[in-house]
Write a structure and sequence with these properties.
By secondary structure, this protein is an all-alpha fold. The protein has a single domain (81-308), classed as MetI-like fold, CATH 1.10.3720. It has 17 helices and no strands. It has helices at residues 2-6, 9-14, 16-45, 65-72, 83-117, 120-131, 138-149, 154-161, 176-185, 187-199, 203-211, 216-227, 229-244, 248-253, 261-271, 275-300, 304-308. The chain is globular and about 75 Å long.
Length: 309
Amino acid sequence: MGNYLFTQPFFKKNGKAVAIYFLVAIVFWFVFLVIIPQLYMLDLSFRSNVPPLARGGPQDFYTMEHYQHFVFGSKTSLDAFNFVDLGVFGRTILVSIMVTIANLLFCYPIAFYIAKIANPSTARLLIVSLIIPFWINELLRSFALRILFANEGVINNFLTGIGVIDQSILFITYDIGLYTGLVYAYILLMMFPLYNAIESLDINQIEAAKDLGSSSLRTHWRIVIPHAKPGIVSGCTMVFMLTVGALATPVVLSSPNTLWFPQLIYQWFNMNDNWSRGSAYSIILLIISVIFVLAMMRIFKVKIGEIIK
């Protein structure tokens, strides 16, 4: 068995020592940093909320109360459903989908220009220009956007100074700053999968389509986009999952009346000291993320191997 394993292309290409190191590192990461924490959180989500020292005792039992609370709310509530948490959850999912679509529409033409139109030196300059701002921490970038969009911020002061507006636009109050910040925060995760997918397209196919009289829109619809489907799915899934699970950007840029679903999870874990309920809410968010990935794969008819590649 061992001799057969070492004859596989992966071992031949990388050598026994490097290949074994890669396999051990991947297995360690997948088992101890992904599988075990998720299983523990899943188990915790079905347990009653008891102090750590009481775990395994008579007060520690399996229950559905945390999931029931998400749907129906507290037992003392007079409402039929938990409209607050369900509303926050639905709004988070909807906004995350809209942010993902906005990211795709914004990044696709830029990725196509860099991959197929710009000369190599211009393409390198544009890629570096995209990367450099992200050397700064996400939290600091969020505060920078807060300064730009504040009621007395740079944008409002500039527009007021040149006489375009008489009073400040409430970017933060109406969550315009939040939506802009979420689109900006994960733009590279959409840009580079699209760029990698489009860059591998043979330029002769595009030229042939033009020679046959195809319009630019039809060429993109029939040639470029089908070829870039793995990049589109990869970018959309990463942007959606990180947007729906964002915490720093909503905390800094959202209005006082806006609550993001990960903020609820944070409150259950850290402010209410209810790790079981926080785990249940986290599992619900994880399930939605998995459903979104499967839906994207079904819509664009791509396999998981194409996305990873």
